TrEMBL record:
<dbReference type="InterPro" id="IPR029063">
    <property type="entry name" value="SAM-dependent_MTases_sf"/>
</dbReference>
<dbReference type="GO" id="GO:0032259">
    <property type="term" value="P:methylation"/>
</dbReference>
<keyword id="KW-0489">Methyltransferase</keyword>
<dbReference type="Pfam" id="PF08241">
    <property type="entry name" value="Methyltransf_11"/>
</dbReference>
<keyword id="KW-0808">Transferase</keyword>
<dbReference type="GO" id="GO:0008757">
    <property type="term" value="F:S-adenosylmethionine-dependent methyltransferase activity"/>
</dbReference>
<feature type="domain" description="Methyltransferase type 11">
    <location>
        <begin position="57"/>
        <end position="117"/>
    </location>
</feature>
<protein>
    <submittedName>
        <fullName>Methyltransferase domain-containing protein</fullName>
    </submittedName>
</protein>
<dbReference type="InterPro" id="IPR013216">
    <property type="entry name" value="Methyltransf_11"/>
</dbReference>
Amino acid sequence: MGSAISDYYKNGRATHLRVLSSMFEEDEMPIAHLFRSEQEMPQLEKRALTLVRGRVLDVGAGAGCHALALQEHGFEVKAIDVSPLSCDVMKARGIEDVECVNLFDTQLQSKFDTILLLMNGTGIAGKLSRLPLLLNRLKELMTEGAQILIDSSDLKYIYENEDGSMDIDLGGNYYGEVDYQMVYKNVKGDSFDWLYVDPTLLTASCEQCGLKCEIIEKGEHYDYLAQITVTK
């Protein structure tokens, strides 16, 4: 993805970014979408930006569209991503505080008033069993009274029949656990796990971690925006 973002920034275009998965047919990600303006963002993302307060951490910032929009509104934003090429592009686009770092790296120790994880932010957990690990790590980075703004989707619609019944193997892995691999030109990334989580399970996981989860808004296709705060 970093290679595609870099090409698009330099040339105004990029060839197809292929998205492979053992669970779905091959798909493509439009790179231009990663450079969208605030006006071009989906409703859930626009709503999230209206809820931001204080110092912001943008996790998995990509090409920096959210960080850039917030910075233009006067917020102090730190954008992080694991891709050096993505971070180079964000710096070139004018984002003032960019760091190439993994969320779980101990060198990231600052605290923030808002932590932003958009474009299916729960995906960073990878597996449902690791969701508490993600939430507890985010909790470590929160100031008193801080919030996490995170979105995801409930993939149950993929398994839903016309009569409303569900073709889900209850004895198998959680249906929101997906594997992906990105391919751009001759660059093939490593396969990685990505988690989509339904609102009920996210709320339950938050409660286990001493956090309160409120579903702020639901989208048109099983997607939703959640606001997470520390339980008082």
